[in-house]
Amino acid sequence: xxxxxxxxxxxxxxxxxxxxxxxxxxxxxxxxxxxxxxxxxxxxxxxxxxxxxxxxxxxxxxxxxxxxxxxxxxxxxxxxxxxxxxxxxxxxxxxxxxxxxxxxxxxxxxxxxxxxxxxxxxxxxxxxxxxxxxxxxxxxxxxxxxxxxxxxxxxxxxxxxxxxxxxxxxxxxxxxxxxxxxxxxxxxxxxxxxxxxxxxxxxxxxxxxxxxxxxxxxxxxxxxxxxxxxxxxxxxxx
Length: 238
Prior knowledge:
Blueprint: H1 16-32, E1 34-38, E2 49-53, H2 59-67, E3 72-77, H3 84-92, E4 95-98, H4 104-118, E5 122-125, E6 137-138, H5 143-151, E7 155-161, H6 163-166, E8 179-184, H7 202-218, E9 222-223, H8 230-235
């Protein structure tokens, strides 16, 4: 199945498979790496909520999802649909494919995400839109803010450190025995923005607040520009 031939609306997010998957994978990752987990007790037991994290490694979503106290759906790049192996596993554990080039399939993915929140479930997203290949924190996309205001749900900033040393971008094998810290900050009260939903600047203001809170957790250098794609980064080193 190529990414041109899939319908994101067919993917429903986290299922009972993830309920069994998370404890199984957590058993192994906790033996391969040392984790410092902070603030996970803040995640509400029920109701919709959005976790917004920085993105420095492929393992970010794996570790965050694995240690989540409840099922969590995430978005992932549609290229994972090109291989039957990743297509089967990633969609089973709750990934909703997103075509990052935009267009109709991207809109369909957002409809699928809205269905997740409408069911009162947990949703995780990386506002930068792609992995940071230089370790810096980049300007966030406004999708999470749009969803939070539509559903009136809180956004939890998440700071992940250490995963780039475990598995740097564009590497194949992780390094074992290293440390990873995942810290969830206090929820951002989106209600204070609700009276301004008709303001075209409100999404950017909320998103910037989210990124500021993430930066406070990770101490990354913050660049107020969108993260370059892989090809762009590679060209700068030619």
